[in-house]
Write a structure and sequence with these properties.
Layout: H1 12-25, E1 35-37, H2 46-58, E2 69-75, E3 79-84, H3 89-92, E4 95-100, E5 110-111, H4 126-134, E6 150-154, E7 159-163, E8 171-174, H5 191-194, H6 211-222, E9 227-229, H7 231-234, H8 240-248, H9 250-255, E10 260-263, E11 288-291, E12 294-298, H10 315-323, E13 327-331, E14 334-338, E15 343-345, E16 348-349, H11 389-400, H12 415-421, E17 429-430, E18 433-434, H13 438-441, E19 445-446, E20 451-452, E21 472-473, E22 476-477, E23 491-495, E24 500-501, E25 509-510, H14 513-522, E26 555-568, E27 577-579, E28 582-585, E29 588-594, E30 600-607, E31 620-632, H15 638-643, H16 646-649, E32 658-670, E33 673-683, H17 684-688, E34 693-699
Parallel strand pairs: 8-9, 8-10, 10-13
Antiparallel strand pairs: 1-2, 2-3, 3-4, 4-12, 5-16, 6-7, 6-9, 11-12, 13-14, 14-15, 17-18, 19-22, 20-21, 23-31, 24-25, 24-26, 26-29, 26-31, 26-34, 27-28, 29-30, 30-33, 31-32, 32-33
Helix pairs in contact: 10-12
Domain Heterokaryon incompatibility: 170-320
Pfam families: HET
InterPro entries: HET
Length: 700
C-alpha cells in the first residue's frame, strides 16, 4: 500500500536524485557522481529519513557521519542502488536498492502492490508453470533417477500414501524441527493409521501436526500439486532400514521434487509460513516519493548474514536448499522463487522470465551484481565439468559453520551433496574426503571455536575418523589449498604415502591412487613404471582392538616418522573467544617445531578445548609425513608471513626464494592405532636432520 507520508515540500536532495532516476528511465546518460552528503538529507522528509534510518539499521555500531557521501548508482537496466561513498569498511557492504513504479518502468523490473497480510498463493502458480515450459536446465536429469519406495502426503485426502515404484510428482519441505512437545512423526506403530483417509485432519492428529507442515500442505494444494514429502512424516523414524534408505536417497528426493518449500522464518516447526496460515509479521515496505513523478520502493530484503534465521544456520537445511532444482522461499514475510535460470519475488514485476542472469552487467564499468537483491537467492549445487577441490572445500566450510542437534549426523547431513559430487570426482569420497584430492584434503585445520565430535562428554573417542574434517564440529579450513591449484600455483604438493583402506568383508583399496598417477604424469609419464606399484599389500587387522564396523575408519600406509619438541608461539593460551554456537570456547594454539638444536623448523596448529589441555612447553610429539611441498616466494609473498611462518623464522631459510617442506600430522598412539591430533608443516631439511624412520602405521 502507498505510504501516507510525503517528502517535505521543496526537498532539494530528493529532487536531485529524482532527476537522475528519471533521466535513466528515459534512457539518457547520467554521470557517476550522483552524490550528496548525509548532512543534506532532510530529517523532516519521509524519503530522506527512511534512507538514513535504513543505513542506521544496517550498521548500528557504525553510524553514518554527516560528512559521509551518499551515492546513487543508476544503471541502464533501470536498476538503482543507494550506497555510501565514504570508503569506510563498516559501510561498504551496505546498500539500499530502489525499484521504480509501474508508471515509471512498465516494461522492466518494477514494484507491485500486494496484500499487506496474506500471500495470494494461487497467483504464484505461474512461476513453476513458466519454469516447466521454458527452462530446460531446471528439468530433472538422468543422473538423478527418481527414488522408489517413497511415502508421500496426499494433500487432497490428508493422509500418507506409500508408492513402491516410481512416485508421482511431488513437492518437498525444508524447515527447522526445533524442540516441541508431542509433535507428530511417523513411527511403525502409527504408520497404518496415518494412511487412512483424512487421518492428518482428524481432531486427534491435527493438533499434533506442526503449523509449518499444515501451511506447506495448503501451499502444495494451492500451487496445483497433490503430493508433499516431509522428512518427519515420510520417513518412518524408528525403522532403521527405511531411515537409512531415505537418507541415502536425499539427493534424488530433493532433485526430483517439483519444487522445495523453504520455511526460512522461525525457530521451530510451529512458526508456520507467514502470509499463509498467519499474517505477515514484518512491516510493509513504504513508497518513497522523490518527486511527484518519481515514486520508488525499497527492494526486497535479501538473504544476507544480518537477516539469517535459525533455518540458515542448520546443517540439514544447507543440503536441502542446494539439492533442490527449484525453491519457493518464505522469508521475512515474502515469497521468492529461485530456480537455475530465474528469480521471481512477490511484490516485484519481472515478467515473463523473472530476474534472469543478465550478462549486460559485464559491459558496465561498475557491476552491481553483488548488490542486487536477486543475486542473493542464487543458491545452487554446481557440478563442474572438471572436479574442483576449492569448490568442494568451500562447501565444507559453509556446512561446518552450521549447527546440528545430533553430532552423529555430521556426515549424513552432507551425504546428498557428496552423492552429487561423486559422479564427477574420480573414486568418490571416503568419510567425506575426496579420493582424487586425498593428500590435499588431509591438510584441513580446525578454526577458532571448533571442537572434536566426541561420542560422549569427557571421552577421547571420536564419532568419525580423526583424519576426516567430519571429526570436528565448527569451522574448518584448508588454507594451503588456495595456493596449490591454478595455472601457476605458489605451492606444489606431491603425495609421498600410499594409503590403503581395508574395511571388513571388502577388498583392500588404494585410496590415493589418482594423486599418485597425477604426480607421475606431471613428472614425465608412467612408461617405465614397475607394475608392482599397483599391487595391494596384505593387511592383517587381526591384532587391532577395534570393532569390525570401524575397520573402515582405518588407513594403512608406510610413513616417515620423527619426534620434535614443541614450543607455544605465544605463552598465553587460555583466553576464550565467543562464537555463534557456543557461549565461550578457546581458540586454536600455534606451536613451533624445534629441532635438536632448538631451532624453529616448523609450525603446528592445535585446537584447544577445556577438556583437552594444551601441550606443555618442550613436550615431545611424534609426527608423520603425509605429503611434500615446494613454495615459491615470487608467486605469493604472503606464504612466508602467514601460511609458512617457519620459512622466515629460521635464519637458514629466511632468504630462500623456494621453500621445501613436509606436511605432517602430530599423532597419538592408542592400542596400536595412531590418531591425528594436529596438522602442521616442517622444513624438509629440518625433518631429515631428526633421523626419521620409516614405519608401517594405522591411522584411525
Amino acid at each position: 500500500m502507498a505510504s501516507s507520508e510525503h517528502p517535505a515540500v521543496g526537498c532539494k536532495t530528493c529532487a536531485f536524485f529524482s532527476e537522475a532516476i528519471l533521466k535513466t528511465i528515459r534512457g539518457e546518460a547520467v554521470g557517476e557522481n550522483i552524490i550528496r552528503l548525509a548532512a543534506s538529507f532532510d530529517p523532516k522528509c519521509a524519503t530522506c529519513k527512511y534512507t538514513l534510518d535504513s543505513f542506521a539499521r544496517l550498521a548500528p555500531n557504525s553510524p553514518l557521519q554527516l560528512t559521509c557521501p551518499m551515492r546513487l548508482d543508476c544503471f541502464p537496466q533501470k536498476r538503482f542502488f543507494f550506497r555510501t561513498g565514504c570508503g569506510c569498511w563498516d559501510h561498504s557492504a551496505y546498500h539500499l536498492e530502489l525499484l521504480p513504479s509501474s508508471e515509471l518502468a512498465p516494461t522492466s523490473v518494477h514494484y507491485k502492490i500486494i496484500d499487506a497480510d496474506t500471500i495470494d498463493i494461487s497467483s504464484l502458480k505461474r512461476w513453476p508453470e513458466y519454469c516447466e515450459q521454458h527452462h530446460e536446465d531446471c528439468r530433472p536429469t538422468p543422473t538423478q533417477p527418481p527414488v522408489t519406495d517413497m511415502i508421500l502426503i496426499d494433500v487432497d485426502e490428508h493422509r500418507l500414501v506409500q508408492f513402491p515404484g516410481t512416485p508421482p510428482k511431488y513437492t518437498t519441505l525444508s524447515y527447522v524441527w526445533g524442540v516441541l512437545p508431542d509433535i507428530l512423526e511417523t513411527r511403525i506403530s502409527n504408520f497404518s493409521t496415518l494412511q487412512l483417509p483424512s487421518s492428518l485432519a482428524s481432531p486427534e492428529i491435527l493438533p499434533r501436526l506442526p503449523l509449518t507442515i499444515q501451511d506447506a500442505i495448503k501451499v502444495t494444494r494451492d500451487m496445483g500439486e497433490r503430493y508433499l514429502w516431509v522428512d518427519r512424516l515420510c520417513i518412518i523414524q524408528d525403522d532403521e532400514a527405511n531411515k537409512s534408505q531415505q537418507i541415502a536417497s536425499m539427493a534424488s528426493i530433493y532433485a526430483n521434487s517439483q519444487f522445495t518449500i523453504i520455511a526460512a522464518d522461525g525457530a521451530d516447526a510451529n512458526t508456520g509460513l507467514h502470509g499463509v496460515g498467519s499474517s505477515r509479521p514484518f512491516p510493509e515496505l513504504p513508497i518513497l516519493e522523490f518527486s511527484p513523478e518519481c515514486r520508488m520502493r525499497p527492494g526486497p530484503e535479501t538473504e544476507e548474514a544480518r537477516y539469517f534465521t535459525t533455518w540458515h544456520n542448520r546443517a540439514w537445511t544447507f543440503q536441502e536448499r542446494l539439492l533442490s532444482r527449484r525453491s519457493l522461499v518464505f522469508f521475512r514475510g515474502s515469497v521468492i522463487w529461485q530456480c537455475k535460470c530465474s528469480v521471481w519475488v512477490e511484490g516485484v514485476a519481472a515478467e515473463p522470465d523473472g530476474m534472469v542472469v543478465d550478462e549486460t552487467w559485464r559491459t558496465e564499468k561498475k557491476r552491481p551484481a553483488h548488490l542486487a537483491f536477486d543475486r542473493h537467492f542464487t543458491f545452487e549445487l554446481k557440478t563442474p565439468k572438471r572436479p574442483d577441490f576449492r569448490y568442494f572445500e568451500g562447501l565444507v566450510r559453509q556446512y561446518q559453520r552450521r549447527r546440528m542437534t545430533y553430532q552423529a549426523d555430521g556426515l549424513r547431513a552432507f551425504s546428498g551433496i557428496l552423492d552429487v559430487l561423486s559422479r564427477t570426482y574420480d573414486g568418490g569420497f571416503l568419510h567425506g574426503m575426496p579420493k582424487m584430492f586425498f593428500d590435499v584434503a588431509m591438510l584441513w585445520e580446525p578454526q577458532a571455536g571448533s571442537k572434536p565430535r566426541l561420542v560422549a562428554p569427557g571421552s577421547r573417542e571420536l564419532m568419525f575418523p580423526s583424519w576426516s574434517w567430519a571429526s570436528f564440529q565448527g569451522n574448518v579450513a584448508n588454507n594451503l589449498s588456495d595456493h596449490t591449484f591454478g595455472n601457476n600455483p605458489s605451492i606444489e604438493l606431491t603425495p609421498v604415502v600410499r594409503w590403503y583402506h581395508a574395511p571388513a568383508d571388502e577388498p583392500i583399496s588404494f585410496v590415493n591412487l589418482t594423486p599418485h598417477l597425477a604426480r607421475m604424469f606431471k613428472q614425465g609419464g608412467v612408461g617405465g613404471l614397475d607394475l608392482k606399484f599397483f599391487d595391494v599389500p596384505t593387511i592383517d587387522t587381526g591384532g587391532l582392538t577395534v570393532e569390525k564396523e570401524k575397520l573402515g575408519w582405518l588407513l594403512h600406509g608406510s610413513v616417515s616418522v620423527a619426534s620434535f619438541r614443541m614450543q607455544p608461539e605465544k605463552e598465553e593460551t587460555s583466553k576464550l573467544v565467543r562464537v555463534a554456537w557456543e557461549e565461550e570456547v578457546a581458540p586454536f594454539v600455534n606451536y613451533h617445531f624445534l629441532d635438536s638444536s632448538g631451532k624453529i623448523v616448523g609450525r603446528l596448529k592445535v585446537p584447544f578445548t577445556r577438556e583437552d589441555p594444551v601441550l606443555e612447553k618442550d613436550a615431545l610429539c611424534e609426527c608423520i609425513v603425509i605429503s611434500e611441498g615446494k613454495a615459491y616466494y615470487k608467486r605469493s609473498k604472503w606464504l612466508k608471513e602467514i601460511y609458512l611462518p617457519e620459512w622466515g623464522l629460521n635464519e637458514e631459510t629466511r632468504e630462500l626464494e623456494e621453500f621445501h617442506f613436509y606436511n605432517v600430522l602430530w599423532v597419538e598412539q592408542r592400542e596400536g592405532i595412531a590418531y591425528r591430533r594436529g596438522c602442521g608443516t616442517i622444513w624438509k631439511e629440518g625433518w631429515d636432520r631428526q633421523n626419521p624412520e620409516v614405519r608401517n602405521i594405522v591411522l584411525g
